[in-house]
Amino acid sequence: MTVDGAGAAAPPTRVWPLVAGAGLVALGLLVQSPQVLTGEPLAHLILAATAAVLLLQRLRAPAGAASALLGVALALAAAAAAFASPLAGALRPGLLHAALALLLLSAVAMGFGARMAGRVAVPLLVLVVLVPVLPLFEAALSYPMRRLSALLAAAVLSLGPGEVRLAGTELAWGDLRVSVTSACSGLTLLQNLLWVAWWTVLMRHAGLLRRGLHMLLALPAVVIANTLRVMVLALAAAWQGEQVLLGTTHVVIGWLAVAVAVGLFLAMEQVFPASAGPERDAG
Amino acid sequence: MTAVGAPQTRPWRLLAPALVMLALLAPNLGWIWQAWTSSPLDAWGWAFLLLGMLWWLLVLDLVPPAAPKRVLDPAGWSPLALFAVAGVLGLVLDVRVAQAAAALGIGWAAAWLLLGGRLALLLAPALVLGLLALPTTGYLLQLGWTAAVGWLAPAAGLAAGAAGVMLLKAGVALTALAAGLLLGGLARRGRLPALRAATTAYAAAAAVAMLGLVAALNPPGFGPALLLAEDEWAFGPWLGAEIPVSPAERRLFADSRKLSKRLYSTRDGQRVSVLLVESDDVHDLHTPEYCLSGSGWSLLRDAPLTAADGPALAFGDAIPAAGALTAVRGGQRLAGVYWFGSDTRSTDDLAGLRLQRRLSDGPWRMILVTAVGDGDQRPEPALRRFVRDAPWLAGES
Asked: Membrane-spanning regions, if any (chain B) (predicted)?
């Protein structure tokens, strides 16, 4: 996937990035425990895994004086956000998340330089800014995606035996009724895929436009994966009963859908070949 | 660390940090001494201070500082600023432990500035030992430990959270000394790097940010005020009696306007102890964990009363923002509920109350209700029964 290694001499093997990466993944597993940070645990896990990827990538530019300044400034901004949060009323959760994000960014700036902090800033801001406000756009974002997934699933299922009827986002297949609810809209899937997509385009392309265009392929990947999820759930419910729509099977199929979406996005790389040369830093 | 024949530092540079530390600590020496002599939890504070002073002298004796290349080490400004901010906050918010910690920290930062970063790192264990000598730090350490254990291993919290304050202090002190020896070894081999100003600036900024995050994640909660009708000694199955306050308790609450310790019992053998403290100075209140730890109890739980506790602890209409305690000592088990407050509000968070107190508030009160069980007899039923039957009075709203 990466273009950095092509034609270049093999980098010397270092143990510490592996250890640090494993530590960060462990940290991700810890922070997704409900006692530590409730809400968006998967996003936090992926944040940690992303940081691990960061470390496992060999970083070319050492942190300079400007990076240290940026790190200190970000840490001070984090302190300001943290101390202001109790006084911020309804903005308290946002400021609290911002403080955490700025502190993480400051650590990246100190450890790996300002450029790397810039790279991490986007996924972090997605986590901190976009994810908390997603419920505000529930009607605008969720319903179209639910409807699209339900429509596509109904179309595919209608190729098989039995009549398939679709009313809004509810599929009726024989006696079985499956509602594509907000939780099944694929938004969470999209949110999680964004991280993988970000790192993919970062390593494959130079320039915002090409990266942005490649990022857009995340949408069809999510729609396809979510449609497959709806279909598999409908089939599983028809075979095993409606209890599978609520239990572990539902969760497992959700995780598989994430994997499928990632796989689809990576497979779509063929559509969008790498534009960054082997010697070019993907920064 | 110093090359043979290298110019030695001037004596005033060696003396100045200690003098700065002592001068800044002077306003709080009386409070520290009083705590050492009156609070069981802080009784051995002087030993940690002595150990810290010995370490400081040992380092200066064994690792004589070389004459610095510059008048002041620029990397020392950040820790100085950090502790100065802590001191100003301590003064503004009237938090004595913050003032005292800042005094020690500023002295250490002065050593950094005058003697260099490498030596300051070697002196850091002395700073840690000095902090352990301050009143309240042991209690804070235990709170942190209990929270960390409950956070990381809720299932194991019951056993692991029971570490005593002295054990925790000793553990921290030994770790600091071990780290000091390690740093000393590195220094002898010339492998102790000098910290850059940027690194220390970042460390200071990150420390402030983390402090802010901790504060923001633990906001104090306030509830309605609730008082015990003090002149009703008999209610329901309960009969109460005033019991003598021990000399140690009297010393601890010396300036309180009111100090009442009562024992309520029922015919069927249930017993509950109630401690009422009232003072015009919020500093006179102490968290019950503070006293309990000093009396040998190990805390298993110290958490705000939650909705899950509601059905068990039926206060009635006005439910205070109280804290629930569970502690063990040998074969004994203690269950308790406590809150602080004024005529208008209640809270389980004394630090939050002190930080967010208003001039109009006061007098300040503490109510602690505890029941103790031996062996198979659990204390919770007695506590629940007392809370249900007691004549509670709602405060002003």
From this structure: 12-32, 44-63, 75-92, 98-115, 122-145, 151-183, 195-217
Q: Determine contact, residues A145/A219, Cβ cutoff 8 Å.
A: no
Q: Answer yes or no: are the C-beta atoms of B48 and B133 closer than 8 Å.
A: yes
For A86, the closest chain B residue by CA position comes to B216
- Shortest Cα–Cα distance, A61 to chain B (Å): 18
Q: Among B220, B218, B222, B223, which residue's Cα sits nearest to residue B151?
A: B218
How far does chain A reach from its first CA to its final CA, in angstroms?
16
Least confident of A113-122, B158-167, B207-216, B323-332: B158-167
Lowest-pLDDT range of A229-243, A265-279, B79-93, B372-386: A265-279
The confidence score (pLDDT) of residue B355 equals 73
**CB–CB of B154 and A35 under 8 A?**
yes
Cross-strand partners of B339: B367
- Could you say which DSSP state residue A272 is in? S
What is the structure's pLDDT at A30?
65
Q: What is the DSSP letter of A142?
A: I
Which stretches of B161-302 are DSSP H helices?
165-188, 197-217, 247-252, 288-294
- Check B209 against A36: CB less than 8 A apart: no
Note whether A78 and A102 are within 8 A (CB). yes
Which residues 201-220 of B have a C-beta within 8 angstroms of A? 201-202, 205-206, 208-213, 215-217, 219
**Record: contact B213-A99, CB cut-off 8 A:** yes
- Backbone φ/ψ region at B346: left (φ over 0), alpha (ψ -120 to 50), beta: beta
- Closest alpha carbon to A282 in A209, A201, A210, A212: A201
| Tokens read off for B7 | 């110019």
> Which residues have C-beta within 8 Å of that of residue A147, sequence separation ≥ 6?
A168, A169, A180
B19 in A contact zone (CB under 8 Å): no
> What are the extents of the domains in chain B?
11-217, 226-394
d(CA B274, CA B227) in angstroms, rounded, equals 12
Residues (pLDDT < 50) of chain A are 1-10, 37-38, 58, 278-283
At residue B165's C-alpha, the angle toward residues B163 and B166, to 5°, is 105
- CA of B113 vs chain A CAs: smallest distance (Å): 20
Q: Which of residues 133-152 of B touch A (CB under 8 A)?
A: 150-152
Q: Residue A162's CB: how many other CB atoms inside 10 A?
A: 12
